Amino acid sequence: MTDSPLEPRPEPPLRIRIEVPPDPRDLPGDFPHRLEIEVRFGDTDAMGHANNSRFLTYCESARIAYWEEATGERFALVTHGAEESLILADIRVAFRSPVYFGECLMVETRVGRIGRTSFTLEHRLTAHESPLGHARLVATAEGVQVLYDYATERPRSIPDDVIARLAAFEGRSLRG
User: Fold this and answer.
1) Which domain range does residue 156 map to?
2) Interhelix angle for 52-71 vs 160-170, to 10°?
3) Cα separations (Å) of 28 from 72, 91, 103?
4) Is residue 154 part of a domain?
5) d(CA 167, CA 71)
6) Which CATH number does the domain housing residue 158 bear?
7) Residue 90 has what DSSP assignment?
8) pTM
9) How many CA atoms lie within 13 A of 131 on its CB side?
10) pLDDT tens profile 105-141
11) Rounded to whole angstroms, how far apart are CA atoms 142 and 92?
12) How many domains does the chain have?
């Protein structure tokens, strides 16, 4: 997707699940990518907790970090000359517990499904144990990314080498 590769990517992190009290609404299984995010004061709303819109930003940050680490490529920006990039086609967030200013969240990310022109990323957001609150599941999310060609204004097929890099990072086959 881009001519500016990142430094060689390290081995995927250990797939030790972030432990929180059991919750039947949680996503089972392990996640190969993690991103820690601190809830900022500006993330909160009049109710005193992180506004629902901020969860889209948390997932966006995780999505970009996942892509760069898994593929070894910088996230392509059209404003910097990229002719194609990933675009978000759909996202659903299921809120499980409020989070507050100063809490630290862990956003775990993995590929859920991969198709010809799109793939789904699943996110699991948990809060750390802290003086501000107990460890807990705070949200789950599922977002569909499409590889988009800006010249033709159409989706394009995800190259086999990109699928191979994602599969290597995930440590599993992504195609049935």
Assistant:
1) 33-170
2) 100
3) 27, 19, 24
4) yes
5) 10
6) 3.10.129.10
7) E
8) 0.86
9) 1
10) 999 999 999 999 999 999 999 999 887 789 999 999 9
11) 5
12) 1
